[in-house]
Every structure is written in C-alpha cells, then in structure tokens.
Amino acid sequence: MKPTAPARQDMQAIKATGRDTRTALLTRSIRANVPLRKTFVQAPRSAACRHGPLRAFVTGRDLRGLKAYLMIVAACSSGASGWTTEHDSAVWARMMDIHETAGDASARTGAWRTLRRLENRKLITCARDGTMIRVALLREDGSGEPYDRPVGDTEENRFLQIPATFWTKGYDERIDLPGLALLLVVAREKNWTTFPADKAPQWYGWSKDTHERGLKKLLDLGLVERREHYVKAPLTPSGYVMAYQYQRTAIARPRRPRKQSALTTSTTTKSSASPSRSKR
User: Fold this and answer.
1) Quick one: how far is CA 73 from the chain centroid?
2) How far apart are CA 259 and CA 218, in angstroms?
C-alpha cells in the first residue's frame, strides 16, 4: 500500500502575531509591571516648561512610536547588558504590527524608521548590523543621559507602572493615541485625581479636545473609572462646583507581588482610598 503524504501545515495559521511577539518579550523580561519615569509624561515642578517627551508623540500623531517605546522599556529589563535588546528587523516590525499592512522589506524599513524617530528624541540609541537591530535605553526625560532603573528617591526618579496585562490582554491593540497618552497621565497621579482639560496645554502640551477624548477612550475601554467630586465655590450661584475624579480600574493597575505582608496591604489600601487633587 502506497504511504500517504503528510498534510502540509498552514504556515499562516502558526506564524507568530504581533501580540505573540510582545508577550514573548514581556515573558523574557520576567516583569509583571513596566516602570516608567514620570518625567516622560511631565517635567518636575521646578522646570520652566512642564511638558515631557510624551508631548512630541501626541502632537506628532506618532502612536506607533509611542507603543514601540513603551515595549522597548519593557523589553530592556536587565542592567547586565547595558539596558539593551537586540532582534532581527522582522521581529521589530512584527512587534510594532507593521507586518500587517506592509510586505517584508517595507515592514523592516518601517521598523528602522520608527526606532530612528525615538533616537532623534533622545530616548534610545539604535544600531544596525545587517538585519539585526540593537537598541539601548536612555533616560526617559529626553535628556540623552544613560538609563538607570528608577528607584523613586527623588522627584526626577519617581515612576509610574504599566501592568504587563495591558499588552497580553490586547488593550494596546484597541487604544488610540489620546487614550494611551491619558493612560500614562492617570497612572502618573494618585487615585481619584481630577484631570481638568483646560490645564492640558499648560501641563502636558496638548489640546483640551485631545485630553477629553483620551479620558473618554479610557472609560470606553474600562481602563479607568470616574466619580463626581464637589467643592465649595462661594461665588457661584449654587455655592459649589462639580468635577470628575478618575482612577485606574483593576485591570490597569500594577500587579502586586504575591508575597506581601498584611500590614503593607492595609497601608496601601488606606492610601489609595483617600481623595486627591494633585497640584501637578
């Protein structure tokens, strides 16, 4: 009896997706949360201008660049190699989902150009050797200084955290540029903080409309929740005014370590429950 030839596998069905690639990077970095200095979002209060490097992504409409940068921060998790990561340009393109709308050569070129934009903003350095691209982190404030792990000891070293589930659950695929910018803004502040749109141009460097659309997108995705907050206003007809306060929902909050004392948990809960209006 003539042997039956084995069925051919559907290569397209087993090929890694962009999400697969991002998940693999996060798994390799062994991180439940990705730390990012708050100065990326907003400069310290002592600065002449409060705008952080995030502003350039928003005003430049560079969603791809912002997503790529956050993934690079997540992937460069070890100081032993100088906070670097190296991959074939096809892997970089797939990580950025460029392969979905471009051929192989164009996708590789698109990935390199995206990384070069980040280098021009003094957030990374990148070098190419054949098809391999090596990226090294620089400090998040755009100063061009070498990267080191933020530890929170000074205002310039304080950091926000993005849970790895933001990528592994696919929220990064559904969010738009205003939404991602505002997710970083909300993550930068304490729970139940107000984010007045009329302050956005001064504090962050983008328009009121962008600010409002970003908060709406986060609400639609279930990444934040809001509540009404009333304050006394003697010169208004009602004698008070209402403003919305926001905080991240459970899916968007940093994952806690598995081993944590009851005392630490209790202290954190009490701190999170208290309303806050940041002066920013």
Assistant:
1) 9
2) 30
* 163 SS3 class: strand
Which of 40, 250, 72 has its CA nearest to residue 166? 250
Query: Quick check: 254 and 167 in contact, CB under 8 A?
Result: no
Are 134 and 84 in contact, with CB atoms under 8 Å apart?
Answer: yes
C-alpha to C-alpha distance for 79 and 250, rounded to whole angstroms: 30
222: left (phi over 0), alpha (psi -120 to 50) or beta: left
73-102 exposure pattern, b = at least 16 Cβ within 10 A, e = fewer? bbbbbeeeeebbbbbebbbbbbbbbbbeee
**Per the structure block, which two tokens stand in for 207?**
């328009």
Distance CA 207, CA 211 (A): 6
Between vectors from CA 153 to CA 147 and to CA 159, what angle results, nearest 5°? 60
| 268 contact partners, CB below 8 Å, separation of at least 6 | none
Q: pLDDT digit string (tens) for 94-144?
A: 999 999 899 999 999 999 999 999 999 999 999 999 999 999 999 999 999
Measuring CA to CA, which residue among 56, 215, 64 is closest to residue 141?
A: 56
Q: Residue 82: pLDDT band by 50, 70, 90 thresholds?
A: confident
For the ranges 22-36, 42-56, 162-176, 253-267, the lowest mean pLDDT is seen at 253-267
Q: Answer for the pair 158, 34: CB distance below 8 angstroms, yes or no.
A: no
Total-model pTM: 0.86
Q: Whose structure tokens read 């310290």?
A: 44
Quote the longest CA-to-CA distance of the chain: 96
- CA dist., res. 228 & res. 240, Å (int): 12
**Separation of alpha carbons 32 and 239, rounded Å:** 46
Look up residue 182 and give its two tokens. Answer: 């505002």
